[in-house]
Write a structure and sequence with these properties.
Layout lengths: L11 H4 L4 H14 L7 H16 L6 H10 L4 H20 L9 H9 L2 H6 L6
Length: about 130
């Protein structure tokens, strides 16, 4: 795999052959070539990688299904990855601040199930 485009799902078998540094580098390269300015391109790329890793797990966890639901609801794939990353970031924030209800993945998955394209577009995704 020599390039990354968030509008096209990476082949999971090819994605898994890369180490995390290679994945992050591909995502950074995409955003640089697309001239998308970011406050912290490495942090942004890392979130893309985590979400793509989760999507690549397929049916093991609900993230791929959420991505498809969001794209079926008229988000483009890149925005859907960002929407999921927003929920992941919220979940990580809750974990870091000692919210015991956030322990484990069930709370994250439950919040993803509530996420809609409309909520993302309105900026209401922070509320879960």
């Amino acid at each position: 795999m020599q390039s990354y485009d968030p509008m096209i799902a990476p082949d999971p078998s090819q994605w898994h052959l890369l180490d995390e540094y290679e994945r992050v580098a591909l995502v950074v390269k995409y955003h640089q070539e697309a001239r998308i300015e970011l406050p912290d391109e490495n942090a942004h790329a890392l979130l893309h990688v985590v979400v793509e890793n989760q999507i690549a797990l397929g049916d093991e966890i609900p993230v791929e299904a959420v991505l498809h639901r969001l794209t079926d609801d008229n988000l483009d794939r890149h925005d859907a990855v960002h929407a999921i990353a927003g929920m992941l970031t919220n979940h990580m924030f809750e974990l870091m601040h000692g919210d015991d209800a956030a322990l484990g993945n069930d709370a994250y998955f439950a919040e993803l199930e509530k996420l809609t394209a409309e909520k993302w577009q309105r900026g209401d995704y922070m509320e879960g």
